[in-house]
């Protein structure tokens, strides 16, 4: 695990740390070639400089976030924001469904919108894959 991601996880409550550690482990397993770093204060994984998946501690949960998740056509993911992102929120590690998360991570590799160049394109997203 990236040392900055480990430090982020270690800074959480024991229950939230358990969720964060499990999510990081799954993401690292299913996206082994992704770059992981802290971006906008939370762990994010990138492919070719494009943000793919990350998680963050919110007030009452840990949010798993997929930048292109609305295009996955997965009923368990909720729309997030005004672009193509979707999320799933967890309050207990027991809520993590590893098969679902694996499928979403695999889709995140195959279905991507170009967030890396969103500023250059003045807020317009283009599909990469």
From TrEMBL:
Pfam families: DUF1801. Residues 17-107 form the YdhG-like domain. This is DUF1801 domain-containing protein.
């Amino acid at each position: 695990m990236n040392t900055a991601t480990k430090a982020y996880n270690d800074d959480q409550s024991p229950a939230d740390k358990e969720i964060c550690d499990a999510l990081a482990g799954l993401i690292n397993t299913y996206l082994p070639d992704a770059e992981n770093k802290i971006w906008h204060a939370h762990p994010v994984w990138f492919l070719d400089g494009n943000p793919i998946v990350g998680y963050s501690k919110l007030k009452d949960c840990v949010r798993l976030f997929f930048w292109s998740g609305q295009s996955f056509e997965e009923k368990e993911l909720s729309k997030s924001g005004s672009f193509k992102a979707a999320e799933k929120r967890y309050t207990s590690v027991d809520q993590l469904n590893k098969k679902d998360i694996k499928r979403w991570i695999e889709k995140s590799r195959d279905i991507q919108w170009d967030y890396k160049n969103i500023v250059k394109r003045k807020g317009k997203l283009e599909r990469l894959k």
